[in-house]
Fold this protein.
Amino acid sequence: MEEIPRWNCCGAVHSLADDDLIHQVAPVRNLIRVKEQGKDVVVTLCSFCFNTLKRANLLMKDDAEKRNTLNSFMDEEIDYSGDVRVLHLLEVLRDEIGWEALAQEVKLPLRNLKLAPYYGCTLLRPREVAIDSVENPTILREFLKALGATPVEFPESTRCCGSYQIVSSPDSISGYAWDILSSALSHGAEALVLTCPLCDYDLGQGQKELVKRHNGFKGMPLFYFTQLLALALGLDPRVCHFELNHGSPESLLRENNLLP
Amino acid sequence: MSARKKDKSPAETMVKKEREVSKAKLIPVHIMGKRYDVPEGLTLMKAMEYAGYKFIRGCGCRGGTCGACGTVYRKPGDYRLQVALACQKTIEPDMHIAQIPFFPANRAHYEFADLTSAPEEVFRLYPELFRCVACNACTKACPQGIEVMDAVSALKQGNIAVAAQIGFECIQCGLCTSRCFGELVQYHMFQLARRIYGARITPRAEHLIEMTKAIDEGRFDNTLEKLRHMSEEELKKLYQKREEEPVTAGEDWRPKDKTYL
């Protein structure tokens, strides 16, 4: 696996307007950069990038008219026809490495940690880009099991966090956040595991407000899934920068002897 | 003096040049939409002057360095607009030429002393940075061949150092900005990036600080005093027998006389 030396922001949101091709230029250009490196697979850690790249890729593969327009607009680049595979890191762990092989590499099992897997939207919707069952995904659960943690399933795990609505209506976000966090708590989770920087922001900012509003709610630690992967594989925990996480997860990790 | 006598007078030179020009083949070019027949081999700038344009703005060094003469042209049968510095590009038959000597771009005002090396400084001063949709029109418009969009991406990624390095050869002609439909001001943003990079990110040259301190403290005063009292002949002799650093010298090259190291 090599980092792409040249890339631009994918645009973060897949444009839903049917004729809004200019917002497909950025993700398609990244896919062209992948080809320029002589590669035909690209892996992302961010589920928004994943969703945007994969949907732009499908468009280039399936829609000849739009493909031609985009290729002729980018006349300085090589023509592209959707032949790069777009993968999320979780798919690589599941399909290329396998949960058993991953479990064997674990140096510091996350024993006793009760973690709620939270998918949000962009790994599972729309169906054409989903990395797992849209209704009943298990990929995060299997991931957490491989790291030695105890997954805690809860009904809100695929519910939308509110996404960019936080900009225009911050109040509605704390509503979404409360439903998700309180449900995870009531099912016995000590922390939430997520794959998307925007979910992290919404649930993190949202819970600051919730702590004030809901008596007895002390907040809930949020983990980006790669942080737990690094910790379990025995990397120096300083690379994880847990001090930047929402919901102060460090004490939880210390209680379980996972941090010095 | 004797050498100068052999030269022709300025008037003679001009007549000769005009004769050469009149011998040259005339080719049609379209300047600001009007056709002129101009001698082939001229630069865009000279062709415009030949056609009667007088440059008050849009012309500076005439050596491809200052960026004042950004010019847009199109060749027959090609839909693409191309760009060049008018002082560098040679005319071609039926070219359409229009000069864009100045573009009314937004330039942020800031007190440099108050700026840190944080990328947020750029975001705050140029929030339009995030209007970029990666269309790459800026890169296509750069007469310096800079990967302009890559530098914009670097700024969006918060990497001021990479933006400063990619944009190092920017001559501030503004053609990128003239083509940007996100209305970004790439060249001013890169200038800010280079300033922050130079002043806040690159490591300080400690040896230079030490050396200037030593000079201030009088380390070379005696040497300079000696030079000041030398005759012209002595100075010439000294200059001629100086030890030169070979062009191929590596970093570890040292002169034989180490008195002044």
About this structure: Chain B has twelve helices and five strands. Residues 186-201 of chain B form the longest helix (16 residues). The beta strands of chain B are 26-31, 34-39, 70-74, 82-85, 96-99.
